[in-house]
Request: fold
Amino acid sequence: MLWVLRDHLDLPGTKYGCGIAQCGACKVHLNGVAVPSCQLPISAVGKQAITTIEGLSVNGDHPVQKAWLEHDVAQCGYCQAGQIMTAVALLKENPKPSDADIDSAMSGNICRCGTYLRIREAIKSVAKK
Amino acid sequence: MTTGKTTYNRRSFLKASLLSGGGLMLSVSWLSSVKAADKMEALNLPEQWAQLNGYIHITPDNVIKLICPNPEFGQNVMTALPMMVAEELDADWKNVVVDMGPHDNTKLGPQFTGGSNSIRMYWKPLREAGAAARQMLREAAAQSWSVPVEEVITKAGVLSHSSGKSAKYGEMASKAATLTVPKGMKLKASKDFSIVRKSQKNVEGKKIVTGKPLFGLDYRADGMLIAMIQHPPAFGMKLKSFDASQTLKMSGITDVFNLKLYEDNFEQGGFDTRTFNDLLVVVGKSTWEVMNARKKLLAQWEPAGDTKDTMSGRGGKREVTVPGGLESTSAQLEKMQEQAKKPAQQLRKDGDPETAFKNAAQIIERTYNAPFLAHNCMEPMNFFAHVTDEKALLVGPLQAPGWVEPTLSKLLNLPADKIEMQMTRMGGGFGRRAYGHYLSEAALISKKAKAPIKLIYTREDDMTYGIYRPMYTATYRAALDANKNLIGFHVKGGGIPEHAIHANRFPAGAVENYLAEGWEIPSNITIGAFRAPRSNFNAAAEQSFLDEVAEAMGKDPIEFRLELLKRARENPVGKNNEYDPDRYAGVLTLVRDKSGWNKADVATPGKETYHRGVAAYFCHNSYAAHVVDMVTRDGQPYVERVFSAIDCGIVVNPDAAKNMVQGAVVDGIGNAFYGALTHKNGAPEQSNFHNYRIIRHNEAPKQIDVHFVENDIDPTGLGEPPFPPVFGAVANALYKTTGKRQYNQPFKPELDKRI
Reply:
């Protein structure tokens, strides 16, 4: 799925990071659940809905995207699409996540620049609203 | 920078599903006409720009485009450097858009991202460019209004005169562009800043959170093919022969060939380091196809033996022998232990350290070790190249275009002005992308394939085919007299293939009898700069050692350092001391005060006991100190909270600077606990994130308070300086938590052994 999105559908917002579901950079929503697209065979998708970062909102104004800008989260920015997709799925399922919930949902997403603190703050700010 | 259009149609979708095995229904929900409402598009940019200098373009509609000269890898220069221009230009920041400049050293300066140098290097020239453009706009207004130029004032992109006349910059831009560029402009005093020193959001923030194609891997061009390199399985090996018949049968594969990166006697510059010279290349239509077809290659490898590299640049032209052999970490450690016993090169000597140690009542001696580290940029190495007989276009992520250009010119036999380089946003750098071999590889592959290609490293390629942080060791010795005064200090450091010793840094200058020595063991494992090269080991070892010395002397670790710094200030020992003792002491006192270092109630709030470690360091012209608060969680030591104090002079963009320090703290904790790249028979033992551990959300601190020393000193580095002392502060907090000192990085395996 990852390379179909990137190479064939020209949707490069979904990133390649490891190819073995260890870093979370390639996460997309499969029926609203965040999954690593590098492990998702096209044949397994069927009629299920896939949403990528490009499809999260029309104008980049999803509350989680706005929170990311408000907290100026990104450094290099490469992992952030995957972080955002994971955070959106978390908040959908659990609108008021605790620190432990955030740890458990987000620990599959590596940020090599170390913006974890701001990601946490951004998620909490959305939860408060 | 991307030429591809973000479109989607039924045909490309069907093509995709056919590739995957065909016939399946796949429903992809997407927004077919995604329009980013980012600043660029909202401003409805016109075609015509009046260019006032290399950095400043203004439209008649009053949009100001500022060119960022330096590549962006997350240090936020695309925001900070234009802020410096806008400040002197008196621009309205709301009307500013930013573009990354192409490689053009004539118009845009050195364009090097590294050494924590961007802000420092451009602090004066960019403000002068802004001031000169402002003066030209004033001059244009003065001529139009027939008033003296001194009477034209500027504010937030508007020119005005006491007679009531006013004009936006855009209205005067075309006229201003015809005027002579003034020189020697007086720059603003820092108290008058209105953009610099105020937090401004990342100018690419919106593009990042909406997944716009910013990175090298996102770049595409018409007719572009994908290339990958199959490299030997181990350092010390080379290609013997290959059979590509199976690979060539795979769908989408257009070419398989081998090529030599550098011909014999090619004179390498300092940043031409490459891991392997004989390249086995697969070229095809899509990433997935090339990735799979490469697995079908039947390649035979053989020992490379000793090889010779011809080096030029600093140190003059010389031949360097790269030893053959398949190296293993365990053997390397033994080799380092042996070498450490032998005489080494003296790097600095003050007083009479031999006598001091002979007369000492107590000698403390400790040895510290650290492994190779892989950079692990989140975006693996990649580059686009389109090379023809006449010219070359290269697009992708790199830190130092000016360094690779002469190499490309020689390799491609093209004059520099026929080589166009564009820099994309980098998905991390950390020093790795200062080494441009992957551009050279892409360029030669494009030339041979006669096609535009994008060279992609997989994560495994990126990790096992690296230019690593060297493997280091250092033995520190301290001599105490009967009254527990520090009378001698000795450091002897070594490494594979270079040592990490900075002989003129603290505590040099603060101890009467001082000796620094260094030795090196050559290797075929390639190494290079890694966030704060050498310092990232020194600060771990030296700051751990000073903590232990302070304890032996019965002193508080901060007070002990402050006493040494007092000596260095009032009566410095020796010459060439690199640091300013006042500024060094400044970050220590700031972090002491902000962390409530001496207040037990702050150290033990609520139920959990915080065990505290402190460390400080000077590098890249800046000063950093951290207090790390550690708790035990689920039986594991965990850094919950960190206080940081930084002196980097004027802080251009405070919130972004804070973000960078927080990131450096997390990076430091992660590498201190987990970072290691080890080898067995030349082969890296880690290949991806399942066996190379990177710090994750649940392991990062919940609180990192960053405090900057406020002064009006011209800004110095920030990307690197906060990183090294984290290692020492973590080691010292671990001692308080576990009762055991840490001597070997990474710390986690040793901690696990004890549990």
Q: What stands out?
A: The first strand of chain B starts at residue 27 and ends at 28. Chain B touches chain A through 87 residues (CB under 8 Å). Residues 1-45 of chain B have pLDDT under 50 and may be disordered.
